Amino acid sequence: MATTDGAARVSTPRRPTITLPPRSAAETLFADGLSPGPLTMVSNFFSENADFSSFSQLLAGAMASPSFSADNSSSENVGGEKFGFRQNRPVSLVVAHSPVFIVPPGLSPSGFLNSPVFLSPLQSPFGMTHQQALAQVTAQAALSQCYMSVQIEHQASSLAASTESLTRHQSFDSNTTIQPVHTMISEPESSTMESSEVSQSDRKSLPISAAMDKPINDGYNWRKYGQKQVKTSEYLRSYYNCSHLNCPVKKKVERNFDGKITEIVYKGQHNHEIPQSNKRAKDRIDMKPNTTNQAKPELRFQGETEMSMTNESSHSLPGRDQASTQLTPPLQVLGSCCTCGNGYTEVGTSKLTVSYRTVTEPKIVVQTRSEVDLLDDGYKWRKYGQKVVKGSAHPRW
DNA sequence: AGCCTTTGACCAGCG
DNA sequence: TCGCTGGTCAAAGGC
């Protein structure tokens, strides 16, 4: 990142560097605008091991964590669900990558380059827990939705060369869905105007495909093998294969009418490391700070300003012991966060999915074989209702 | 030349 | 058995 950072800064006045605090200081982190709501949910997959540096590693660590293993069994007991993307990941498989994962789903590389949610190498081994690390990634996924449409136009031309080099390692090796269905983050003032200026017609005139056909430059190479308009989502769904030889990983990407990614589902696990021999990989490597930074990564926003990070979500993470949802899966939960009063969380363990939605954040759905940890997302949720949802045998609060 | 996207057709699962 | 739906295939074309 260091090498092309300069180019990126041409259009981005500054990139505030955020050093991730220890988990106990998560509030500091999120005070900068990265609301952790959906993040801690994801983060709870992870143990406290700090030996992973990439998203893949984080996930691998999460999957290998005792809790996950236990949850696996428990989840299977829950109903022997036919989880849509039950992975066949070898237990021993550890995807070791460089400690950089950057581009979130839903943001073109160029968009992400200037995105305030841009991340550089993880802090994980140095004061950042896996929860936080993954939370950051998820935050990128969430927040990027807000900036994508705005930034595409402004950055496509000037940053095309440098963007891909910034992309790295968002390796969702688990069955992970990031589903920012509702982009509700209050747009920063700096981008609100731009957003409004980017009219619908402008957006339509945009080569959306160019900006979004590669929604996630996660370090892997993807080959699109199909695209459909699925009825259940109304959105256009694209199917991608990892282009690596014999790699079984696939992903589905759903986009709304604006071309914004609304859902990403990863299936399977890479049986290889992130390719580094191709140009993109090379660029990404070039973008990596350096080996020193790899060893001592820091969280860095590539965004324009802190202002871009300014949203109304001051959703800070309370202590995990404050998690109040007492759930007996499978069920779904709707409620508002006691911390910020925003949004709700819903847990559908019958499908082993968890989705969070707050007023200020996109919806994020994580599919996993584990549900127990998801119930303790570190937030306090206030139950404000309960009912049986049509089509569901389970109560909803 | 190689890899990618596009897109209609095909297939399998399900009710 | 049939129709619907989601997922995949594969040919064609583009970069």
Automatic annotation (TrEMBL):
One of its GO terms (cellular component) is nucleus. Keywords: DNA-binding, Nucleus, Repeat, Transcription, Transcription regulation. One of its GO terms (molecular function) is DNA-binding transcription factor activity. SUPFAM superfamilies: WRKY DNA-binding domain. Residues 186-199 have a biased composition (Low complexity). PROSITE patterns: WRKY. This is WRKY DNA-binding protein 4. It comes from Actinidia rufa.
